[in-house]
């Protein structure tokens, strides 16, 4: 397994819409394992393939708390098929927007259809942190960042900060 470099805001790659995966093969499973390794190293609880520069509809999550046994999950071509009217608010962060956190409102529960590592179709009923994490990562696959769910003023300040930081690194 290989730890991959993370794509950081304001890189335009993060705004790409990821393409569906046509088959589950050894190469794809290797990518999923690399993503899990990268996510654990960061450390984070979710990672979309686009965050390592691969515009494919693949994400990994593990919401196990520190000290608990790892519970890695792989979602291939995930799609939200149902979401609740009830809203939950979580403070979100993102490996592609390091050290910035904001409260985001999202549906409290979601049903996510996806393919598993075995290529079979599954539906996960998620609530709490898992529901938030899945919505956050599926947003990535659609070119949407969690800062798109906060006020325009806050979002513009964050983008400006990361653009400035990227320019100073490029010099």
From TrEMBL:
The keyword Lipoprotein does not apply. It comes from the Bacteria. Pfam families: Pep_deformylase. One of its GO terms (biological process) is translation. The active site is at 137. It is an enzyme of class 3 (hydrolase). GO terms for molecular function: metal ion binding; peptide deformylase activity. CDD domains: Pep_deformylase. SUPFAM superfamilies: Peptide deformylase. Belongs to the polypeptide deformylase family. This is Peptide deformylase. It comes from Neorhizobium galegae bv. orientalis str. HAMBI 540. The gene is def.
